[in-house]
Amino acid sequence: MAKLEEIAELLTDEINGFNQSIKKLETISNKINNTKFNSDISNILFLMEEQKRDLKHQLNYQNKQLEEISKKVTNARIFPNWLVVLFFVFVILYGVIIIKISHNLFIVSI
To answer: What is the residue range of 64's domain?
Structure first.
């Protein structure tokens, strides 16, 4: 009988402990259910708008740079102007020299 009374007492203690645990869980559950979360996303929206503005500024800057590069490439030449002028000066001088030499040879041969 002593064993049965001891087992019954242990079971009673366990049941009491279990009931106390359930009461604690109920109070925690009530606290969780009664807690209200404020979902304030205005800060996030502000950051997103700021990021959006920054991206627009960067895009505008990149577009301006691209336009400048396109203009430079469009206006680019293979040879600089001074080299083209120098080439034509030499061609004209060479032509004058050839004409002068051929004229002198023609006069000498007559």
So the answer is: 48-77
